[in-house]
Amino acid sequence: MKELCTAEEMRSYEGYLMETLGIPSLLLMERAASYVAQAVCDMCRFGYSRKVLIVAGRGNNGADGLAAARMLCEKREFSVSVYIAGNSSHASEAWLVQDGILKRMGMVYETGLDTALAQKPDVIVDALFGIGFHRQLSAEVAALVESINRYRAETESKVISVDIPSGLHADSGRALPVAVRADRTVTFGCRKRGMYLNEGRRYCGVVQCGAIGVQRPGGHDIHDLLPESTDLDRLLPARDPLGHKGTFGKVLCITGSEEMPGAMLLSAKAALEAGAGMVKVLSPGANRDLLMQELPEAMYVPMDQPNEARLAKELAWADTVLLGCGLGKERAAEFLRTRAMAECDKKMVIDADGLNALAEQTAFLRERKKRGQATILTPHPGEFVRLFPQEEKGGWQSPERVRALAVEYGAVLAAKSATTLVSDGTYVYYNTLGNDGMATAGSGDVLAGITAALACVCKDAVTAALCAVLLHAACGQKAAERAGSARALRASGMVKQLPDMLDPEGLRAEE
User: Do the beta carbons of residue 333 and residue 342 sit within 8 Å?
Assistant: First the structure.
């Protein structure tokens, strides 16, 4: 996994390097600039000529850009031009040093961005603002950003941003109000959270991170982590070769309605394909024939309305209970209100209509928290808002809020979105794997079934939720490849990929 930091955490780390260890700031700048210059060299190897335009502000980010310009000039095969933006009275000390070096080398800056772009650069290096920028761009600078974006869109030129695309908030990933659209972002020391939240992934392109100092000291722990596909193989528990169907977990799916039997099928199939030893579906009697025809491996309990005694018996049988997929809000609410459910001490995965019903019965979660019982919630943005109506819009993309809500309700949250945030209240994991084709009907039902199966065997609820999200993403990626396009992806196609993705050889093939 890769670490993600806030702007403040990065400043603290840089302070440690400079003030505690005594590494000069200009030395750190040289290392940062060398990564930028190398990124330009690498980009020019892939069919681009060597006209490079550095667009620099007057802060330390701009100084990184000027240092990179010097390094590229020294290589001689590059034609380098520089345009400086911003008020000269705001120049940092480091910028003045780099500016002096370039001028003594004979560099003459461009007088305007339009003039510089008229020379048709092949690569533009965006060094206007770094991670410290957090206010709205001025109209003048916003116009510069839009000019760069327009030039990139109208030509075959590429854009490399230094540390973070200018105009993008390093913590939230929101444009202020516009940001440079980079093909590659070269960041330093640690990836920044905003690169993976909200609009961040749209603006950053490929993110490359270069080390600028020694390992982070104790007391500087990072609690925001970016999983990689290789983490799934490491986190999934090994199967017991002497195990039996009880060893691998019993999942009770309280799912489906006459109107939405598909959600019942998708979640139950996913649970079985994800390795559950036994799956029992509690659903209306009208769904029996469909379930037996499509999934004969599953057991079935007909229950149109909650039957207290029978429900208590089935809950006692299960290791993990999945509640909600296609259930209908009213029926989900009825099940949550039963004494049997209130006293259920098994792991629970709550999704879809279960979440919608839970929005009016959050005391249910607080009671489970008091008893120390594991609960996993898997809301998409709409369900998140209904479940936590007090939250500001976009809270599902706020690591602070997701972490705080996990603590408040004693649950593991998997807040689904283009970047899914998984948290147990301590760590927040940012999943960016998968593809946009997974935004399709039934995808959440598949994830819920996988999560329920893994909750039976993983060491804790957060590991189960994280592994389920990663496995779901791997299946979505493989299903899109086999369908020929993410546009053609269907939820059932993801279920079909589970056997291959759970095989260690299949996982390694995805690396």
Answer: no
